[in-house]
Design brief:
Blueprint: H1 3-9, H2 16-25, E1 28-30, E2 33-34, E3 46-51, E4 54-60, E5 77-79, H3 83-98, H4 109-119
Antiparallel strand pairs: 1-2, 1-3, 3-4, 4-5
């Protein structure tokens, strides 16, 4: 089975064309080698996929015949993604929430006081 079809079958990507484009961009690796979407996969291959700033790694156990339900995915792969990757994503979400949106204007008095409390310094006007 092709790697792009396999990633689509295991629900890493919503469509096969998205999986194909991910392979072309180099976000999919088998045994630490960037590959084409037409590359065949075999049980025992170690796959690394980068999606949303997380490097998912898994070992191929078996090859499915067609797209699977979400509950059946673990029968065909063994997930070896480190937990630190998911913790890093949580920290990234918190850091994005802290920054102000572009075009929201100057900080309000409350925002300025919160910043002063956080940094421990008083801004001079």
């Amino acid at each position: 089975m092709r790697i792009d079809k396999y990633l689509w079958c295991l629900r890493y990507f919503k469509t096969r064309s998205i999986a194909t484009n991910a392979c072309k961009k180099g976000t999919v690796k088998i045994n630490e080698v960037v590959l084409k979407p037409s590359r065949d996969i075999y049980p025992g291959d170690k796959v690394q996929v980068r999606i949303s700033q997380i490097n998912y790694t898994f070992l191929i156990l078996d090859i499915p015949k067609s797209r699977l339900g979400a509950k059946l995915v673990d029968q065909y792969r063994k997930d070896t993604t480190p937990k630190e990757a998911f913790e890093k994503l949580e920290l990234l979400k918190y850091s994005k929430d802290y920054y102000r949106k572009k075009g929201t204007g100057r900080p309000s008095k409350k925002d300025r006081r919160d910043l002063e409390d956080f940094t421990g310094s008083v801004a001079e006007d």
